[in-house]
């Protein structure tokens, strides 16, 4: 049990430190950009090392076994909905009149792109690694898709409203951390699955926000006669592009 609590604490700490790294990004330019991706990259690396590092894998098994022995598994499905809660909060504040970093249309695109990127990565890695879930129900355990979605939403919330109050970012990352912990307590994922999923979610959203100005210049060219917009999509494991033109 202590290992599980420690893992949850580390997950929350990693997330909050990633949020702090973004604040530095504004002040220190490229050096802070590297710092901003260092923590989620470390989380992904930790998960990847679980395939060859005995100590990391033993932590996975000992945590699962301890929860089972002490009858602490939740078997709840709230994480299916809570994974979207940071994004719901972001759009709710926008609809409530709170000024965000981007206008609503851009927020929708940024959130969609973040989910397309993290969803594509998660889907691909799951089918490559074929790790068995902690409950033995399937071989799609690594990384945790719920956790990736939750942390992408938390980073999205932070990017839009983190400059308003650090507590907004803390709230978003806290909810995402609860989703990750729930996946372990529901016996659907190993700790390393969750840590890697969190890193993928954060890094995916960061990447989209960094790339978005260039995407706007490339695909969002506008003139008096024509408006063109290219949007990616993700459906049943397939990536697609939608071209919208107004003449």
Explain this structure.
The structure is a single chain. This protein has one domain (2-221): Up-down Bundle (Vanadium-containing Chloroperoxidase, domain 1), CATH 1.20.144. The protein contains 9 helices and 2 strands; from the N terminus they run H-H-H-H-H-H-H-H-H-E-E. The chain has helices at 2-28, 30-49, 54-69, 79-82, 85-95, 104-129, 145-161, 166-185, 191-219; strands at residues 227-235, 238-246. A two-stranded antiparallel sheet has the order 1-2. The longest helix has 29 residues, at 191-219. Residues 1-6 and 17-28 have low confidence and may be disordered.
How would you describe this structure in keywords?
247 residues, Vanadium-containing Chloroperoxidase, domain 1, 9 helices, two-stranded antiparallel sheet, 2 strands, mainly alpha, globular
Uncertain spans: 1-6, 17-28
Reading off the top of the CATH hierarchy, the class is best stated as Mainly Alpha
Structural class: mainly alpha
Main beta sheet strand tally, sense and closure: 2 strands, antiparallel
Strand content: 5-15%
How far is the N terminus from the C terminus?
Answer: 61 Å
Which strand order does the major sheet show? 1-2
**What value does the average pLDDT take?**
83
Rg, Cα atoms, Å = 19 Å
Quick rundown:
By secondary structure, the protein is mainly alpha-helical.
SSE blueprint and pairings:
Blueprint: H1 2-28, H2 30-49, H3 54-69, H4 79-82, H5 85-95, H6 104-129, H7 145-161, H8 166-185, H9 191-219, E1 227-235, E2 238-246
